[in-house]
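so i finally got all the pieces together for this one. its two components total, 642 residues if u count the protein bits. some of the lines might not be protein, just check the labels. i wanna see the whole assembly predicted at once instead of chain by chain like last time, that was a mess tbh
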Amino acid sequence: MLGANYLIKVLEEHKVDTVFGYPGGAIMPVYDALFDSSIKHILCRHEQGAVFAADGYARSSGKLGVCIATSGPGATNLLTGIANAYLDSVPLLAITGQVNSDLMGTDSFQEIDTLGLSFSIVKHSILVKTIDELPQAIYQAIHIAQEGRPGPVLLDITKDVQQAAIKRVTVSLPVSDCSDLDEKKLQQAKHLIETSSRPLFYAGGGIGMANASTSFRALANKLQIPIVTTLKGIGSVATNFSNNLGMLGMHGTKAANFAVQDCDLLIAVGARFDDRATGKLDEFAPSAKVIHFDFDKAEFDKLKFATVKVTGNLNKNLQYLEQQINCTGNQQWLSSCLANKRQYQFKYSKSEQTICASSLLNRLSKLLHDKPHIVTCDVGQHQMWVAQHMHFQGIENHLSSGGLGAMGYGLPAAIGAQLANKDHQVINVSGDGSIMMNIQELATLIRYQIPVKILLLDNQRLGMVRQWQQLFYNNRYSEVDLSDNPDFTLVANAFGIRSQSISSGMQVEKALQQFLDSEKSYLLHVSIDPKENVWPLVPPGKNNSQLIEGESL
Amino acid sequence: MSRTSNIKIIAKNSLGSLERILRLVRHRGFEVSYFEANSYDIEDGLAITMQVTGERQESNLFHQLYKLVDVIEVNLNSHQKVRSCLGND
């Protein structure tokens, strides 16, 4: 058996049924092996599309995402997507072809030092230069991507190895960490929770990665402690759960940010104190002791000192606490947080003339409510409006490029999510800047008849940059005008995708129904006011209670 | 205020393992003022001695280094040590 065939065989053994990629010279033996395999290969139209699709597949299913590219430009085009998976801890295997081992280091055609490029954006990377190294490398890569805190692993395989016959297979994998519960730390956490007056859960994406939503919800329900979530933590409890105050941070809700500033105990669960969440770090949760649950010890005290640090299996830790603690939180504190939630809840206006993005998204969310669905975002104003105004039942229903903030993520991620969740309505909410970053993937929708819907909010601007230039750069609008956008409905039609454009409030209801009723992919183009801003906003350098608000249009 | 720390690392001598360690030290906010690497008496092993200076918590660097797949053991200032399996700090 050749190395390339062996690679595909091991992927099949690991129940990989779908991979995303783009062929080229140095990866041709792998594509030849794929030709006879049971694995479905999705040909994306750019390697960045392939890696984002694999990311969306992984996030929405909890399974390993796999993407394949050739050497040189194929590999460099993957890098943004690999970095995205690294910063959001997504289990991803990126397989790249490399030139023959005897040509490496000679600047041969499509040769680049892919291993060297990978170091800062992977959990691990392996260059395979001899056939005897291949079996161990493949098994190790698959294992590392998924164990502990997940992340991307790059497997760079020279073409001669792909074409060489496997001689011997010896594989040894490290034993996964299965350390016992740290009962001492958990008892300390219990004591802090029982003696605090104003405890608050700060729920992050780690809850989803640990598949611990059920345990977290049970604990939160029992303790009756208010909850704030990060962007990636959205869905860790249902948006409409009574004690959920919403997202914290730069574009968080007032209720969430005020609770963080007032709490005396912050219970961080799979969250990493990202600057977009904390605002001015020195003034973040200033009166609070911190309990920090995280699998990754490197997150402890990285940005905020934690009095109690609990590592290990999050599910078991949360279940232990739920069994041990019998008290419930301070009712007066909870009531005060919920009063803020009511007082500062978002309000939705109806206009017959213009379309307000937040109202539209909230309406879409209501129409989707009882149907299984996944929403993927790109990056910018629309991403924050989705986080603020749409409702999510589960953490895997909301896919957003959180750490890297990569425009162009949404459409390919939706492709991956739809292929992993065939019974779900998958919607990509995008902006007119972001959609152009990977618009070639419309061809992938058509090629495989993938019924992803695209809701395109078009303000003819790079809206978030424009908003910052307005607020913090004295209205000096530098390179944000996109008023020469193409007619997106015609672009969609050119790819064979049905589309519609709306620009007035009167059109919204009917258009959303048509959008959702379509059995095939569909693009709904929505013209919104270029001056619409995302509110509230915590200005840079300010703490989360110093948020500002402007008028909604 | 800058602090100087002495770090001893035992690592597998895999392709790129030295680069990974040095890259991480730089990226996490430390400068290397002394570096020595020798073969170690396990198969394909490396024994690395480093002196680094930085303003950030050295414990964070310690845990970041230990996350590298090739790193087997990290010993910080001869008193904080992690070996082979997670759990000791």
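The first helix of chain B runs from residue 17 to 27.
The longest strand of chain B covers residues 30-40.
anyway lmk what u think
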